[in-house]
Amino acid sequence: LIKEKFDFGGLGAAGGYTGVSASDGYSVSKGYGFSDTSKVENVTADGTGALSDAVRFITGSSAYTFNVDLPDGVYKITVTTGKVDSTSIYAEDYAQLLFMTGNNAVDSFTIPVTDGQLNIYATAGISGTPFSISALEIEQLSSDTVTKPTIWICGDSTTASYYNIADDEIHGWGQYLSNYVDTDKYDVRNISVDGIYAKQLVSLKLFNTIEHYGKSGDICILAAGITDYIPAYIKDKNNPDSSEYKTAITEMVRRAKAKGMTVYLTKQHTELSDCIKYPLLEKKWFGDVLEEIAKQEQAEILD
To answer: What are phi and psi of 12, to 5 degrees?
Structure first.
C-alpha cells in the first residue's frame, strides 16, 4: 500500500519527504505537481524541518490544485498548514478540513480516490486571509474504493474543530467524537464551522461533501441552531422567526436520507447559567422546531 510524504516550500526537502516547490508543475513522469505554477508561491512558516516553509495558494479554486497520481483506493490524507489565520482544505472539489488556524495546524481526513489522481488545494477559511500547505502525507488504507461506515457531523461552533488553542479554550464536541467510537469499524468526519448558520451549510455547499460521499449505513448528525436563533431572537424575542432554519435543516435531512443515511437532529446544549435555573428549561435554540422536523421527516432526535 502506498505512502507518500510531501514537503512544500522553497527550502528543500526534510528527510523522508519529497520536496515540492511552487515552481514544480505537474508532469506524468513525476506523477505529482501543481496544475498551474502561476497560482502558487513559496512562503516561510514557523515550524522546523518540513514545517519551516510552505506553498501559498494565491487563488483557492478547484482550477488550481496540487495533483498526485494514485491507484484507486481509500486514502488517509494528513495536511499541515503553513502560518495561516484560517485555511480550509478541499480535495476532489469538496470541502474536507475547515477553518484550520495558526502555524502548522494539522488534521486528517479519509476519502476514496476513484479517477487515478488526488486533486487538493487550500483556500481561505475566513475571507481575505492567506492560505497555505506546509506538508502533505498520503497513506493508502485499502485498494477498495468504498469507505467504512462513516459518522458525519455537520454543525456550528458546538461541534467545530479548533486548532492551536489551549485546552481550556472553546472546543466543539465533534472534534473528540472519534475518541468514543470504534474507529476500526467507523470513520468520523466533521464538517462544522464556528459561527455558521444552518442555511450557510447549504448555500456554501459544505453539506455537499456529506451528500457526495455519504452512503447507506452512514450516520448524519445535524447540530446547528445557536447561530440561527440569536439574530432571530433579537428581532422578535417573543416569536423568533425559524423559517430559514427549518427550511435548511429539512433540506439537509432529505438529502442525507436520499443517500440512505440515518439522520439524527441534535438539540443544542444550553448555557452554563441555565443549569441553575428553576424550573429547568424544556427547550432552547429552536429545539421545538427540530422536534417538528423529526416528526415530519421521520428522523431521530438527540436531546
So the answer is: 90, 180
